[in-house]
Amino acid sequence: MLTLKPLDETCPIHRQLGVDVSPVVLVNLFTVAAPDVAALLKAWEADANWMKQQPGYISTQLHRAVGESYVFMNYAVWESAAHFKAAFSHPDFRATLGAYPSSVVASPHLFERVAVPNLCTEQERRREKRGCRSANCDAQSVRQCKSPSPPRTGRGIKGEVSNRVRSPKFSQFDI
């Protein structure tokens, strides 16, 4: 069974679950011993598949640290803290925690979006959703961009270059 360790000792996840915020982003850092990586991935996949069936679930994505690191980060979006609390506190979910190797330490924490002028704005998010990287886009169409960015390609799971355009959701680990 995994060990839960607060990411922020002053406000651990159990205190955050009582805050009325919508939407929320769960960031969960996992550390694991090298021999237990496959078991961590299997347990996380089962949990993610269960979570995505729960009310209020929007999306999740797992990331692995680069290099010879055995740190993973789960990024999940929920409609509200209350929705996440219902899923996180559900007896069926709590029972699955025993499937994680004992070397796993998880540090879950809830966040809310911060709008920073000219960087993290709703208008910028809408432009990115349409595929436009230029500040010259308007709501009419991505074709009206005066300087659109070319499609991005990425590397696949094993490092091979992909010809397909990558979505902003990094579909590699989307559940």
What does this structure look like?
- The two termini are 23 Å apart.
- A hairpin with a 6-residue loop joins β3 (57-64) and β4.
- The protein has 175 residues and is of the alpha+beta class.
- The protein has helices at residues 13-16, 37-51, 81-89, 91-96, 122-129; strands at 3-4, 24-31, 57-64, 71-78, 105-111, 153-155, 161-165.
- It is globular and about 45 Å long.
- The chain contains 5 helices and 7 strands.
- The model is unreliable at 135-175 (pLDDT under 50).
- It folds into 2 domains: 3-111, Alpha-Beta Plaits; 115-150, no CATH class.
- The strands form 2 sheets. Strands 1-5-2-4-3 form a 5-stranded mixed sheet.
Q: Helix count?
A: 5
CATH class term of the largest domain? Alpha Beta
Fraction in helix: 10-25%
Determine the N-to-C terminus distance.
23 Å
Rounded average pLDDT = 80
Sheet-strand content, in percent, reads 15-25%
What's the count of strands?
7
Q: How do the SSEs run, as a string of H and E?
A: EHEHEEHHEHEE
**Poorly predicted sequence stretches spanning 5 or more consecutive residues:** 135-175
Classify the fold: give the CATH topology of the largest domain: Alpha-Beta Plaits
Strands ordered across the widest β-sheet: 1-5-2-4-3
The assembly state of the depicted protein chains is: single chain
**Corresponding CATH architecture of the largest domain:** 2-Layer Sandwich
**Per the principal axes of the C-alpha atoms, what is the gross shape?**
globular
Number of domains: 2
